[in-house]
Amino acid sequence: MKHKLILFIAILGCVISSCKDLQLDPKGILGEPELFGTAFGVKKYFTGIYFKLPIEDFIYYANGTGNPNNGYQPGNNNSWQAYKNSLDQMCGQTFGWNVAMGNGFGYWPYDNIRLVNVFINNFPAYKDKYDVATYNSLLGEARFLRAFFYEGMAKRYGGVPIVTEVQDPVNGDPAVLNVPRNTEYDTWKFIYADLKFAMDNMVATSESGRANKYVAAALMSRSMLYAGRSAKYTQYLGFSTEAAVQGGFAGMDPAKANEFFQYSYDAGKIVEQGPYSLYTKNYPDKATNFANLFLDKSSPETMFSKGYDGQTYGHCYDALMLPNPDFSSFVGTEAGPTLDIMQKFDFPALTDADGKPVRFTNRSDIKNAMEPRLKGTCYFDGDVVRGKTFSIQRGVYVKFTGPASDAKNGSNAAAVNATSNRILGNKGDKYQGVFVTGDHGFFSGRSAENNAMMGAYIRKYIDPALSAAQANVNKSSQSWVVFRLGEIYLNTAEAAYELGLRSEALDYIEKIRVRAGCLVTRPTLDQSVSSTYGYPIEKSLQFIRDERARELYVENQYWWDIRLWRIADQVLNLYYPHALTCYYVFDEGKYIYLDEINRDNRSISAQKRAAYEPIPQGEINKNKNLLPQNPLY
Amino acid sequence: MKKIFYLVIGATLLSLASCNKIDNWDEPGSRLHGNVIDSYTGTNLVMDQNDWQIRIIDRTWEQKNKTVATYQSIPVQKDGVYNNSKLFSGTYDMIAYDGPFWPVDTIKGVVLGSETQQDFTVKPYLQVVDATATLGGTALAPTLTFTCNVKAPLITGLPNLYEVRPFLSLTTFCGNSNNINIGDYNTAQSSTSATASAKRSINRTWAAELTARGLPANSEKIPYTMGPLLVKPGYTYYVRVGANVNALSRRYNYSPIVKVVVP
């Protein structure tokens, strides 16, 4: 017993003396000193934030009610339905699945802004670990990221609360936590201040997917153009009695417009000092060149892109933009281009001087007079990709002797469209030995999905290197081009024109149109005023806006453009997308193309209130200082 | 055995004790109704069913719960009447918001008891008068041609004249919220002549439209003709014409509904 006791005491003594202080820092966790104390740590911290930037890319959902599957979906690897509900589908740029016009989805990224504010407020403590240039560049990059989040909100809501401190949600004073909305003017100026610092301090070169001072200038060019438009055109909406407008939360004094246009113009000039140039590698084939601009990861025109590797994170663009089974191994096409956008480019006449449909010997002859940029943007009958040829036809007319207007835009009530004269059908159907439709459409027995309802398919961003078997869910790895020099030229052109520098504006348009292969590369300056949209606009400025629609087609820009020009409710006022439909005229042995209203008679309307999205009601319930709500909500 | 018995009794008593919460809120039963009166004619404003709504905000609930209330909407019917008999009593603010008339003030402090009537008198932006719908075409392909005159009682500060539009319906409800959606009818024609083959798009001030149409500057009415538009033989339609200005949601002012029987 005594031995046991001594042994016990001895062991106890050892144990007690080995009790050390356990307040040790865990060695495996990266805390603030590790993340902010080294450039690599900062990069790690920023990577998570880049991932969440509001970039409307392949997998962006257009509308919704706060459902987590709507809007931006960082890291979501099963968002194939986003192609049905895309932004371009919602605003009538493409036609396919029916997407209801939505109010938006309550984008309110103050949690991400907090991550950036933590950095901006705490980083100065580590200043001595860096040389001055690197320190300032990293701070500039943080302010670029913050400006990106605020731009995502400003273009939706107008004025939002500007938060630069890291708030204490537990012990903070509720009066301070309930931040009020700032005015729209102050919000855009805040974005300007952050981006100006970024432009002045960031390094000039960066790895792919990371920003540099020119990327900050690109965001400045785009966001200040939006601000200038909002300042200049909101007054025409007729909202002057609304509380949000009277308080300056939605809309600004039109006299401020030129201030923002000047910021945009100056930023565009800075971008031009960078190592960027328009993509011309595949000249003289300007159609292929325009298509490759989006696929070539070493393109000198791409300034900032968002990457996918097709394995951990892929997207479904190839699977869902071309028909199954010849070009895709998944569901097939969810969207097609409208005739309205096709005819904005250089496009052949569909009717002759007497109003009768032009006769084509072959279906694909229609491409002969098409602008190369249109051929690089869309696939038409006769184009070849993935070893197969597109074959698109709607039906057969037994006879078609009159003018195109006899067909009444495809209406079933027109006499020439009686079932005895206009033969429609499905794959494999024949009329007296002749196939009624093409292999890929347009089939009368199918819905819009996997059916060539618009008469053409989208080519932009399609990766021809994939086989049909590889075009499947999440296997696409094209990067999404966030900023490219082409867009900056268009931004500068518009800003310059608004500032009165008309000839210089047309210089930029000329560069774009030369690259596009247009017939007329420099339009004549036309200052005559039209008022299609209820406010005066010079014809050449309208041309610049149209050039934007052509160049940036299906890059998720159009919706923001028509909203910020304050014409969304007029452009989309019972807008019926039209289709390019090809028919074989049996008694002549030739083909004609008609302009038809889409078969489903579907129209798209945006309400005037779509110029602003509503501040999310859930946020107002938590903080009533966010009132007044935006107009008409 | 006894233990089990007492256990069962105890459990039953406990479960009964927890079922004491009955929904003791009163069913909402306040009735709020009224008319939207056209100040020029003195009778109810001619509308389409649920084109726009009266907004009401429950201030009593807001104060009680120290929060921000969202508005509720009461649809306005086609005869200019609104009616809701399932509201909670309290004190409300009411706004005749976003209708086809000049803005009116919010009416504050409306107390809802068992029944409250609150009328609104409004000044419509436009009046659509002398409207006709004439049958034409052939027996197999009949058409309708619409004509009307548009008047604007108050021109100073009037937003842009926006559209004049024909509406076709198979039921007695006809207008922007109840119509047959036909591409032919709804494809906007913008021109400066009196006739158009479908919906007329204008988007000019009253004075500019008079100038564009070559009418004298003090004209009271502007005539419009739309059509001929296809209809189907053997059907009975209810038709009317609407016109709007570019204010808020661009609600329409209408002509009376006309019944057209196509032989």
Structure write-up:
The complex is a heterodimer of chains A (633) and B (263). Chain A has two domains: 266 residues, Serine Threonine Protein Phosphatase 5, Tetratricopeptide repeat (Alpha Horseshoe), CATH 1.25.40; 191 residues, no CATH class. Chain A is of the alpha+beta class and 633 residues long. In chain B, a hairpin with a 4-residue loop joins strand 9 and strand 10. In chain B, strands 11, 13, 15, 16 and 17 form a five-stranded antiparallel sheet that branches. In chain B, strands 1, 4, 7 and 8 form a four-stranded mixed sheet that branches. In chain B, strands 3-2-5-6 form a four-stranded antiparallel sheet. Chain B folds into two domains: 93 residues, Sandwich (Immunoglobulin-like), CATH 2.60.40; 135 residues, Immunoglobulin-like, CATH 2.60.40. With 263 residues, chain B is mainly beta.
Helix content of chain A: 25-40%
Strands of chain B, count: 17
CATH topology of the largest domain in chain A: Serine Threonine Protein Phosphatase 5, Tetratricopeptide repeat
Total tally of structural domains of chain A? 2
- Count of all domains of chain B: 2
Radius of gyration of chain B using CA atoms only: 26 Å
Weakly predicted, low-confidence segments of chain A: none
* Proportion of residues in helical segments of chain B: 10-25%
Described by strand count, sense and barrel closure, the largest sheet of chain A is: 4 strands, mixed
- CATH architecture assignment of the largest domain in chain A: Alpha Horseshoe
